[in-house]
Sequence to fold (484 residues):
Amino acid sequence: MLRIIKGMKKGSKPEVIEPPPGPNGPSDVTVNHASRSANPQLTNLKSQAITRTASPQTSVVEVTPMLKDVPVSERHVLFIKKVSMCSVSFDFSDVSKRVGEKEIKRQNLQELVDLVQSCSSKMNEIMQEEMINMISVNIFRPLPPAAFENTGAIDGDPEEDDVYLEPCWSHLQLAYELLLRYVVSPDTDTKVAKKFIDHSFVLNLLDMFYSEDPREREYLKTILHRIYGKFIVHRPFIRKAINNIFYRFIFETERHPGLGELLEILGSIINGFAVPMKEEHKVFLVHALIPLHKAKFINYYHQQLSYCVVQFVEKDYKLADDVIRGLLKYWPVTNCTKEILFLGELEEVLDATQPAEFQRCMVPLFRRIGYCINSPNFQVAERALFFWNNEHFVDLIAQNRDVILPIIFEPLEKNIQGHWNQAINELTRNVRKMFIDMDADLVEECSNQLSQKQAMVNEMLEQHEMAWKKLEAIASGDDIVMAN
Fold:
């Protein structure tokens, strides 16, 4: 989505924009958009995010010369002035209102983006702080109610809700672009930048993932990922904050437009985990990622979730048992679409599962697969039978056929004898033939056991039927039955 960031040309040297000496220095410039509170001390970040709020905006939005057109000694004051004007918010509900001022702000934002991207001028700490404060004023804002909140629906499908597009996107996009260019710029010193891009800033970024505008979430995803990569000191905090978002989703809301983007970031993070993995990462898998499978609208983010889970198993094959048992715990009963997603993820996990871990969970696993094979929904049954096209899966079965075949044989026979879909019937016969080729004696033994079981069931049904007939006879007063 985003353009490749181009660096400076070889041999070029960035100009340092320093504040001019004397009374016309930056101390005479009043910046009214300061978004930080008077007390810089952060308070209890675990319980709440410290939001940046804009103070009353008194800046006059007016045309100013471009930074490159003024002497270096005047650029600092002009930069601060442009940043101050960019902190002014506009009402975009009326497109005909203050059109000229909106365009001036857009041009100023674009100029700042070009300035940071070109690396032609190096900003001092004051300028960086004011710029981040201005960005905060623009992007950290109250979000409108979600579509389901407006309609009052409880079980509405997110995919059916109308896509919301932010009306102020022309300004908002440039603010996000400016932040992204600042974060990835080689001129950005993390020791300085972390004073402004702190834990409070990160929490506010995460709050913006609730936006229903997919364009905004895409920018947020890229920016947060770059912050995670560049600001090593923030990494544990970012992981914990995302973890808390998942907990709230699981146990409270089951609604979050940006869950897919957050999981996409995590997929990249998990891919970079060193092995052996820390215990905190394993706890995150068991307590956060696996419970995400229980949500009703998992199809909204399942692809990203499945990637994260499989990454864990590929990093540590011993986690396969925990993952498979977790999937079985949250297995859908009546949602066939969700069941097909689970079967696809299960096959990916089994691809990375070793024989020892497979043996720990194979009994409950094949009981569930047996239910899926007998599903009246032919897509579910077909997806389960397709497992036998996987060579690794067949190898695991062959090594443990003495345990697996007695579990799966009855569902196979039930399909052959009476499944309504002819294609499922044929697939089941193919699977049965694979077992015959694998161990014909075991198949014969299982067939005999099934016949005996069915005979016992039939006998019990006859006894129950006779018992009911006797009860009916007694109720009708039949003397012969009474004598017997």
Notes: The chain is about 60% helix and 0% strand. The CA atoms of residues 47 and 462 lie 65 Å apart. The mean pLDDT is 84.
